[in-house]
Amino acid sequence: MTITLRALASEIHMDKSHLRKLAIRLGVPMERARDPECRNQEVLTFDEDGATRIREYRRGFGKTPDAAPEGGRSMLYIVQLEPDRMPERIKLGIAVSVDSRLQDYRCANPHVHLLHSWPCERAWEAAAIAAITNDPTITRVAGEVYDVAYLRVVQDRGDTFFELMPDLR
Q1: How far apart are alpha carbons 56 and 19 in whole angstroms?
Q2: pLDDT tens digits for 28-40?
Q3: Which of 43, 47, 97, 163 has its CA 20 to 30 A from that of 91?
Q4: Sheet of strand 113-120, all strands in order from the earlier edge strand to the far edge
Q5: Structural domain boundaries of the chain?
Q6: Residues 32 and 44 sit within 8 Å (Cβ to Cβ)
C-alpha cells in the first residue's frame, strides 16, 4: 500500500516541499506513480514503511501552543539554519517559546542549532535586531536571515544590547 506525498503532508500538517526534503534527509525512499485523483499525473509516493518512519519522526515535533515563560516575556533568539553546510548563516527572531519555534524549524531542517537567546519585550525586537546586525561583517540575506563573518560578534553585540535594557528575568 502506498500514500502520496500530498496526502501524507496533509495528514501530518506539513508543507509538501518540506516533507520531500525531510524524506530525503531521513533516507526514506519515494517512488513516482500515476494518481487518478490528480488527473493521472505523476506524483511522489511512499510505501507504508516509509510513511510510518516519517510519522514517527514527526510525532516528536507536534504543534503545541506556545507557553509563555515566567512573566509572559518573549525571547529573542539566534539560530544557525544549516550549521553543517553554512555555519555563517543565521536567523534572528522572537518567540514566546524558543523550544517550540525550534521544533517548527526542525520540521524543514532537523539540524537547526540555537546559538543564544535573551528575554526580550516584543517592542524591542526591531531595535535589538538592528543593534545586533549593525556591523560591517554582517550581511542581510533576506528577512531576518543574515550571513556573518564571526558568530561571536553577533552574540557579543546581543549581550551588549541587552545589558543596556531593563532586566526582564
Answers
A1: 13
A2: 999 999 988 888 8
A3: 163
A4: 113-120, 74-82, 86-95, 145-148, 138-142
A5: 2-59, 72-164
A6: yes
